[in-house]
Amino acid sequence: MAYRLIALETVGSTNDEARRLAEEGAADGTLVCAREQTGGKGRLGRTWTSPPGNLYASLILRRQIPLRTTPELSFVAAVAVAETLAAIVPPSRPIELKWPNDVLLGGRKITGILVETTSAPGAASSDAVAFVVLGIGINRISHPDDARYGATDLAAEGVTVSLEALRAALSTRLADWIARWLADGFGPVRAAWLARAGGRGAVLDVRVGNTLISGRFCDLDGDGAMILEIPGGERRRITAGDVAAPAALQA
Ligand code: BTN
Questions:
Q1: Does residue 112's CB lie within 6 angstroms of at least one atom of ligand 1?
Q2: Region class of 25: left (phi > 0), else alpha (psi between -120 and 50), else beta
Q3: Model pLDDT for residues 15-26, shown as the tens digit of each residue
Q4: Cα distance between residue 174 and residue 61, in whole Å
Q5: How far apart are CA 29 and CA 174, in angstroms?
Q6: d(CA 140, CA 131)
Q7: In sequence order, which residues have a C-beta less than 8 Å from that of residue 191 and are 6 or more positions away?
């Protein structure tokens, strides 16, 4: 994928700016980056604290991507980020993936991924989306408090990397994984994600809307849903939700 970089100083949200540009016709591969965000957006309506110096990037994708497969892109991004970080952090600091798309370093959150999709009104799940905005934030030199896992940043982990080098490394891995996903589907992404998944086999609490579901994290389904075995043995597919921190981390 040939990137077209749009480097901004300050923006509300790179995802919102990318969406605005896409609506004006910006091409596939447009990468909107900013030094800081004043209205950074997280999943589930949360905010993403975005002071200067961390990485904030949003990629516009205009491919034949069926609406129903767009959630898989957050796993594509998580795998690309995990590989990018694994290449620069000491091997003693484990990188772990948490469903659906958290990247943890030493058990603490270091990355946020927000995939936003735009499709025609009334589009069927098999219809191709108009475009996707894939937003990624990586804590490079600072981190906010994160109530669920705690957070960290690369500098705090003793890793010095320039924003440009980090962005270049991430762009390469992201392009590779997107190409692979488009060519071969979710299988290779699922395998790479599971290879770094934390908490497999552990009992997790997952918040789905206002309901808390406890169960053993068994597997990742072929479309990215988490398979939880709930007490009594029933296997339940979770397609959207938020994994609470394991008890050990809440202490
Ligand atoms: C999360 O809640 O974990 C997702 C956070 C996603 C943050 C990134 S930073 C770049 C892009 N622009 C935004 O406003 N959000 C995403």
A1: yes
A2: left
A3: 999 999 999 999
A4: 12
A5: 11
A6: 28
A7: none
Cα gap 36→141, rounded to integer Å: 12
Instruction: Identify the three-state secondary structure at position 76.
Output: helix
| Three-class SS state of 193 | helix
Residue type present at position 186: F
CA distance 48 to 214: 27
What is the DSSP secondary-structure string of 155-179? Answer: GGGT----HHHHHHHHHHHHHHHHH
Tokens representing 155?
């500098």
Average pLDDT of every residue of the chain: 93
The number of the ligand 1 atom at minimal distance from the alpha carbon of 46 is 2
Q: Which amino acid is at 1?
A: M
CA of 229 to the centre of ligand 1 (A): 30
